[in-house]
Amino acid sequence: MKNVSKRVLGALVAGVLMVSPIISSVTASAAKTLTTSPSHTQEIGWYNDYHHEIWQADTNNSSTMTLHENDGGFRAQWKCGPNNTSGNFIANRGLRWGLNNPKTYKDYGNFYCDYECDWCAGTSGNARIGIYGWAQNPLVEYYIIEDWKNWSIAQDPSAEYKGSVNIDGGEYKVYTISRNAYTIEGNKGFTQYISIRQNTRNKGTISVSDHFKAWEDLGMKVGNLYDISFSVEGWESDGQAEVSMNMYQGICDCGHHKDDSVKNIQMEYDSQYKQMRFTWDAVNGADSYGVAVYLAGKWRVQEENITDTEYTTPKNLTLGKTYKVAIAARVNDKWDTANAIKNAVTFTVE
Hints:
By secondary structure, this protein is mainly β. The protein folds into two domains: 32-249, Glycoside hydrolase family 11/12, catalytic domain (Jelly Rolls, Sandwich), CATH 2.60.120.180; 266-348, Sandwich (Immunoglobulin-like). It contains two helices and 24 strands. Strands 2, 3, 6, 8, 9, 10, 11, 12, 14 and 15 form a ten-stranded mixed sheet that branches. The protein is globular, with a radius of gyration of 22 Å. The relative contact order is 0.19.
């Protein structure tokens, strides 16, 4: 497992250009592909308000990471074995506050990660997917492992079993490992906190803050947050992954990300004026609604201050053209755009 400086604060709300509590704006742009090689081993930065990193070491091959535009996900391909080396690969996206952040997780709302990861890895080496990050005071590198291939960190002879917790409908066994290696603070000693899901999965909601709380209940202090990311990692392994992901900073203690999606969307076409009227059920707590249309490979907001539960398009829609429309609700200043895109409706003008 490799330790390196990562991620910067931000979160993208599923590609629709609406404001969430974590961000101030989103800039739409084409998907971006990053490549690492033996002579260029790392790429880090921001893209659509998520921080990202791709990193490789000790391999003669190249790896790629393509950043999604419409969510915090990415596509990764790596080739780090078998080559009789300790080849290592990491690709991740998420939130970053950086060094010396004065806040702990208790100073934020609950953190959640909704994800789906279609992935595979060869029979050599090992690989894993899940939440990854660092915290300071004490210096901790942490993992919430959702799925793994060939070898589990629990098999490390230095892993100390701390207990078992039940979160998000599954049992996680918790371990710590003391290490001395490169960290976000330089070469020094640190501790790894590791939750490993026993009924592994490749999609779902990860209630990140619930793991922080569970660790502290087991005597494992979680200090000042440096970052939180969704990560794909491989060691002496070849593989690929397609990740869809969004991170949320919640404001409740509900323990699960709340579904504020717009439901029961109905469409009524006016052939005289060539326009479509949409209606939907009211969402509890919503103070406004927004409508976005998928055009030329991007979600484009048409209206985001709708106070009623209906919207009519402009007149003279193009005959024969197919439109894809997403409708989102704003609840407590947060747009539920992930579900809006998932529930988008499509129609063709005739």
